[in-house]
Amino acid sequence: MASLLVGGGAVLNGYPTPASGGSAQSPDRPTPSEVALPAVSVTPTPPPEPTRTSGPEQTFLMANGRRQPARVTVPKAASGRYAVVPGDARPPAGRAGKVIRYVVEVERGLPFDGREFADEVHRILNDRRSWGFRFQRVARGPVKIRVSLSSPATTDRQCLPMVTLGTLSCWNGRRATINAVRWNEGVRGYGRDVATYREYVINHEVGHGLGHSHESCPGQGKRAPVMLQQTKSLYGCRPNAWPSPRR
Fold first, then answer.
1. What is the mean pLDDT of the chain?
2. Phi, psi of 84 (to 5 degrees)
3. Is 54 a member of any domain?
4. Quick one: signal sequence residues (predicted)?
5. Residue 88 pLDDT
6. Measured between alpha carbons, how far is residue 54 from residues 17, 115, 235 in Å?
């Protein structure tokens, strides 16, 4: 995701999205006749089949064979209060490296399952292509990082004094604030591949929490560093969600 490193260790990212709507009409009812007519036996006409409306966008497959998440409607503002995802998740066994304790929280009122979000964050951070640490998710006690799925309005508040315009994510203090719009829709540079963009935005924002700053595109057509501001633009690079994609 794209980011703008600002004083105080805070970083922001994002991309705007459009909205659409529609309307329907029904025909006028005929005016009954005022003249009495003889009774006539009529076979009732069956009612027309109901019009089927499409529901949320269905899960679809990308060209790379990865199953993508179904998109939902994200409110501009939710409750403003976080719910910590309960339970702990240990890092994979048999792997060396420093253990980093972190917590996952989801703003109440968002249309996402907290456990599913936490499982995805844990999978991403403990992938061998990620930062090389052993991340342990906890529900209480001291932590180094908070990963917080937030509505656009709450993101704007959490990222102050930066201006996030309801479309960006950020690292601020000890919190990776993930804008739920970005989590839901991805960004233009990743096309319809929302799943890979999710890996990018988690690695990018947590990367700031681990002390990493922004990087530039190393050259036209080359793989983007994960700390490139990919939410804003790929700057001629190819998308990349991982700190160590060849690991």
1. 82
2. -70, 135
3. no
4. none
5. 97
6. 21, 27, 37
Reading the block at residue 38, the tokens are 């003889």
Q: Give domain status of residue 33, yes or no.
A: no
The parent domain of residue 160 ranges over 74-209
Return the amino acid letter for 86.
P
pTM of the complete model = 0.77
Overall domain count for the chain: 1
Q: Which two tokens stand for residue 242?
A: 């991982």
Please return the burial class of 168, using the count of CB atoms within 10 Å of its CB with bins 0-12, 13-18 and 19+.
Answer: buried
Q: What is the mean pLDDT of residues 134-153?
A: 97
Chain centroid, CA 199 distance in Å: 10
134 backbone dihedrals φ, ψ, rounded to 5° = -105, 105
Pairing state between β 99-107 and 145-150 = parallel
> Is residue 158 a part of any domain in this protein?
yes
Count of CB atoms within 10 A of residue 70's CB?
13
pLDDT tens per residue across span 16-70: 333 433 333 333 444 433 334 344 343 443 443 333 333 444 456 654 678 899 8
β-strand pairing of 145-150 with 168-172:
unpaired
pLDDT at 32: 39
| 26 found inside a domain | no
- The answer to whether 205 touches 121, Cβ cutoff 8 Å, is no
